[in-house]
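[Solved] Which block belongs to which protein?

Original post:
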Amino acid sequence: MKIGIPAEIKDRESRVACTPGGVRMLVQPGHEVFVEAGAGEGSGFSDAAYVAAGAQILPRAADVFAQAELILKVKEPQPAEYALLRKDQMLFTYLHLAAEPRLAAVLARQGVIALAYETVQVGNRLPLLEPMSEIAGRMSVIVGSYLLGKSQGGKGVLLGGVPGVLPGKVLVLGGGTAGVNAGRMAMGLGADVTILEVDLEKMRFLDITLQSAAHTLFSNEANLIEALPSVDLLIGAVLIPGARAPRLIRRDMMRQVKSGSVFVDIAIDQGGCAETSRPTSHSHPVYEIDGVLHYCVTNMPAAYARTATQALTNVTIPYALQLANLGWRQACRQVVELQSGLNVCEGQVVHPTVANALSGHKTVGPGGEEESPAT
């Protein structure tokens, strides 16, 4: 099979879908791999390294898309790439279609076979989302602690405190992979950490694994409202696989957070978990509402591109091989978790949760007409 790896064009997206080592694994069974020139540079992988692994370098994204039967990407196709996609071409990437109704409509209209990393599910695990959630969770504390600095517009609180001064308070919404990693990083800095979660078994697990160094609190509106006035760093890490993130924080609730505090919304790529959340980029990452600094970058792990690319390739390459070896139909029959990864197929949004999230959405087509994703 012909496999294409284009350069990512989202704002400051420096990751690439596959390392040279991963390319070597794809080439060994006889597949052809086409890499856009410079695609790996942001992650520290040269064109020469890809050539040595057996890939062919093509000068433009259009050339890669034209050659490939299977496209491997990191982030969802951007508007400039829509016209490059074609009928029956497989696309394997992060899609987050619940927050991207226009893209869902494009994929359906153009007959793309779209599989999303973030909905590939093994039991209760999302193995292709986990490494990016780990990075985003840890990064949320790094970014948040920096933005708390007075020079950045924050309230001037050092999360770890110093002898004689209490540490800052961190509130994490969600005890999944991102939330746990945020909590661990904040604990490492010496912060006072509370994790809100609805799953009692998960709270017991957190209590044991975090050795009671972080507090767990049942997630409901009353507890959240009570906790918000004292928080220094608020981290949104809630997730419903395939669905839009639940908006747990209303605008009036956010007003209870003290001026100079920081809110990092990891859930923004699924629409965000606060009424005040809106997508931002690495070029313009922060905005302020009611005195609270909001960091809502939709591709946070791109900041640590080399680590993220290596971690992503580790988990995606076995599935990419199955798609290349068997084709999408047979691969989805033989590899059960790939069935949950299938989001758009033959003009329809086929993932039930994604379809439900998109129901009722209308978008404007290229000719100005209204269209909705077929579900």
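(Second protein starts here: sequence line, then its structure tokens.)
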Amino acid sequence: MTEPATLTQASTLADEAPAGTEASHPEAADAHRRSDDDDTFTEDDTNTLAEALEPLVADAIFSQGSPPSSDDDLARQVLEAVLIVSDEPVSARHLGEAVGRSAVEVEQLCEELAAQYQMQQRGFVLMRVAGGYRFQTNPEAAPYVEKFLLGGQSGRLSAAALETLAVVAYKQPISRTQIAAIRGVNVDGVMRTLESRGLVAQVARDSGPGKAVLYGTTREFLERLGIDSLDELAPLGQFSPDEETAKALEASLFSAAS
């Protein structure tokens, strides 16, 4: 039950009611007519008019727009807007500056958004990669996106390029000479390909004679793999052969060399 409206307030609201009010709310129309004919209003009359006008007032308020969002809802909207316009991962600290929240709060909000997108099975996901957050296409849609973007062209790295990239990723910083020694082949062409795709870059120079250029993986590499740092690379131990297999391989290589 709302607070009883005064006669003046009730009459004013009734005068401002939209067309069609009398048909949909006869109580309000009847009370309004009586107010024109008779200045004497009882408390019951006032209460009846207030009750009749209550849904009209509510409709008028909500027809002008949705109720204000909560602070968290607004923060999520801002996060989505910033991430959509960003062409690279945005750190939690920078996102926090945009929404006026701490990095920890932003991380929590991003986790909630990521879970929401996953539950809704959206065509995109929110990922933490390369030290920040960014929108990426859903992995399940990757073949279709690749087909759309490449138009039949092959965008995959060759086996030689993948092997070279793996050496750089696990041994960086490393020179071309060292990479060639590990792979047993010249890697100049492959390294140029990896550089042109932004997966490896020059990161330093060797302190020894010749000051050889040392290479390492880039932020683009982390983004493509969908990982936050190199610490998330699979440990090499799980790919290493056991001692018995290693001895057998060594013996076979020795026999082949002799």
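Accepted answer:
You had them paired correctly. Confirming on the second one: The longest strand covers residues 124-129.
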